[in-house]
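Task 17 of the worksheet. Students: predict the tertiary structure of the chain below and write it out as structure tokens. Keep your answer in the requested format; marks are given for formatting as well as content.
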Amino acid sequence: MKKLFFLLVITAFVLLNNTGCKQKSTNESDSTKVNITVDEFLANPENWANKEVVISGTVSHICKHSGKKLFLFGADPEKTLKINAGGDVSTFDLKYEGLDVEITGTVIEDEKIDANYLNEWEAEIKASLADKDQKVCNEENKAISGQNNIQTKDTTNAEVEDPYASVKNFRKKLDESGKAYISIWGISCKSIKEKTK
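Model answer:
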């Protein structure tokens, strides 16, 4: 009888201990998924590195050729976050463009911008400006060619836009960071759904 009682106590202890572990691991997985907005993410993207997040924002653009990239914005439509298709989402449906959505995914280091990257980018811009046959559109969506983009623009009312402005901006950020590269963060999408208001 004593052996049976002792065996029941040990069995109860093992069962209670396993139940406690299961609850703990469930709570841990719930706590790793964080609800954030695009603005919160963009303020400090490296804080979310390799974490699973649920992010809310408005879809500004979906790449129509592949459907594998979506751009999301928050309060400022000029500040966007790239979302890559992944998980159960092989491509993004164009129906989401312009809608408020909720995306679940993992934060990834999507790109690294270093001095070599910026040199190649600058060379591409230089080549495109030198190519007289390359078609570029002006504000009125009229096709104009490479260097003519700058030459034909009316500079009396508007300043000539610097085609290297983005490269210069990234060079400045790279110098200020003191690092070998700047990380561009994105999200690998596992699921997407329209937010209901």
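Marker's comment: The helical segments are 2-32, 38-43, 115-130, 148-151, 165-177. The chain has three domains: 1-32, 33-114+182-194, 122-177.
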